[in-house]
Design brief:
Elements: H1 29-45, H2 54-61, H3 70-82, H4 86-93, H5 95-115, H6 119-134, H7 136-146, H8 153-181, H9 186-189, H10 191-205, H11 218-238, H12 247-269, H13 277-281, H14 283-313, H15 318-344, H16 349-367, H17 376-403, H18 410-448, H19 469-505, E1 514-515, E2 525-526
Length: about 525
């Protein structure tokens, strides 16, 4: 095992079919996969499941509109700061111990969140939940790869990707249903039965991975923690503090830029950086990091915008919104299986990734042509197409990213991929939300300037004073309709922007190395 953990070259020699064996052996492979996937799905669900319950938490915990958002912010910041040290901790205390401890800590933190009596307790427990959950995603991915023989890596990544991609879609639906039918506390209590079952399976069947001595880069970690925390606070507090008009936001911006620059300098000059420089020297892995940012921006921003749009502009209920958005998950399930099959057959990953992004861009083009008259059918079709596109992208991208990494680097690689996806999601949601708010104001002013008696308005402004209360009601109704139209225009503008971002990522696919493997042997890469 020690020899296999040695650093590998960027382009490894083709693997002989006789070496198509898993790095780790487990007593019951199917049950181990179920336990790993259950833990992974719970962690992904909790990134979005609490969003719809915030108004109920606000009144129950005695919080304000501004302070209740810390329930989400504390989880995101804690998770982002903890993610980079996953590889070091796994080597230091053992990946098996870390994974089992993380799941146990996540279950405990979920129970404490459900029992919280005030905002301070909730924020502290959510931070604990974020730290424990941060290690689950990269460890689950690396364990599934290590326990699976190389020829089946595309299939196992398809299974793992289902939880990663579908979790954010199911989170708001499940959270809304639990909040409406039971209580907001069940948003957290629902983790207990599934989490305990997952923990039992992991204790019984999760294999142990050899530990290795590895120094801890305390300087690099502190600099990275400052950069990540300041960046998340910048995104979270920006809208409330009026962005660069606030001294608070300037402090976050300066800290983000300066700490990020110091992180780059430190990692390129340090003798023992937190992440091996060979990771970033790998072409496929570096491009995969860029793709993860795009996936985070497009997928998570769309999922943040659509529920609010459907409920506020079209009058959908929480359950109806979930039903309309469900086909997106169906599309992901279908295309992930298809892309996994194509990877096993040795089809080049690059055109598959490019086609997936083109399909996503086409779905966003459809959404950019929506109006207030759009029906359910158009929402369902565009969601299904977007799911199909994302599923085609995710598996070939994951397989290509890990194909040139040695097993010893998989945990670090997985933590970086998850971190970049999380950063892309945070930045994308914040960016699109800010543009939405500003474009609503701009469009409202533009539309309002054209609502005059001369334009044939339904309201005669020259005689409206004589109707008193009825006249005020007419003005209010007219302003509400202008608001709806302005909001729809702003949503369309966001969809256009995300479409162009998606198209801009397509050429990156052809900068990656292509696979030349076939179904009778492990996938290898070549120039």
């Amino acid at each position: 095992m020690a020899s296999r953990a040695a650093p590998a070259a960027a382009t490894p020699a083709p693997t002989h079919p006789l070496e198509d064996v898993a790095e780790l052996e487990t007593r019951n492979y199917p049950l181990m996969i179920i336990g790993v996937m259950a833990a992974s799905l719970l962690q992904i669900l909790d990134t979005t499941i609490a969003n719809v319950a915030l108004p109920h938490m606000q009144s129950s915990l005695g919080a304000t509109v501004d302070t209740v958002t810390w329930v989400l912010t504390s989880y995101i910041i804690a998770s982002a700061v903890a993610l980079p040290i996953t590889g070091w901790l796994a080597d230091r205390i053992g990946a098996r111990r870390l994974f089992i401890g993380s799941v146990a800590g996540f279950i405990l933190a979920s129970m404490l969140c459900g029992l919280a009596q005030n905002l301070e307790e909730m924020v502290a427990f959510r931070a604990l939940q974020g730290v424990a959950g941060a290690f689950i995603a990269p460890l689950s991915q690396s364990f599934m790869l290590d326990a699976t023989r190389p020829t089946r890596h595309p299939q196992i990544m398809a299974i793992w990707g289902m939880g990663i991609m579908i979790g954010p879609i199911l989170g708001p639906i499940l959270g809304g249903w639990l909040t409406e039918t039971a209580n907001w506390r069940w948003v957290f209590f629902v983790n207990l039965p599934v989490g305990i079952a997952s923990l039992a399976l992991l204790i019984a069947f999760l294999p142990a991975r050899p530990r290795r001595k590895r120094s801890f880069d305390i300087t690099g970690f502190l600099l990275l923690a400052i950069a990540l925390t300041a960046f998340q606070l910048l995104l979270d507090r920006g809208a409330q503090a009026d962005w660069l008009a606030s001294a608070e936001i300037w402090i976050y911006l300066v800290l983000t830029v300066s700490a990020s620059w110091m992180v780059i300098v430190h990692f390129t000059t340090s003798k023992a950086p937190m992440f091996e420089r060979a990771l970033f020297a790998d072409r496929n892995f570096s491009i995969a990091l860029c793709f993860m940012v795009v996936i985070g921006i497009v997928m998570f921003a769309v999922m943040a915008l659509l529920p609010a749009m459907l409920q506020t502009l079209f009058g959908y209920g929480v359950i109806d919104t979930g039903i309309v958005l469900m086909p997106r998950g169906v599309g992901i399930l279908i295309s992930m299986q298809l892309s996994g099959l194509m990877m096993r057959r040795g089809i080049d990953a690059r055109p598959v990734v490019a086609i997936g992004f083109v399909i996503c861009a086409y779905s966003l083009w459809q959404m950019a042509h929506w109006s207030l008259a759009v029906d359910e059918q158009h929402v369902i079709i565009s969601g299904l197409l977007q799911g199909l596109g994302m599923g085609l992208v995710f598996i070939p991208l994951q397989v290509s990213a890990f194909a040139t990494l040695s097993p010893a680097r998989r945990t670090d690689g997985s933590s970086l991929l998850n971190l970049f996806r999380s950063l892309g999601a945070s930045a994308g949601i914040s960016w699109m939300t800010v543009l939405l708010a500003r474009n609503i104001q701009t469009s409202h002013a533009d539309l309002g300037s054209h609502v005059t008696a001369a334009t044939g308005s339904v309201v005669d402004f020259s005689t409206i004073d004589r109707f008193q209360a009825l006249g005020d009601t007419a003005i209010t109704l007219l302003d509400a309709e202008v608001n709806r139209q302005a909001a729809m225009i702003a949503y369309v503008d966001d969809f256009w922007l995300m479409m162009w971002i998606t198209l801009a990522a397509v050429p990156l696919a052809f900068l990656m190395r292509g696979n030349t493997g076939r179904s009778n042997g492990p996938m290898t890469l070549s120039e």
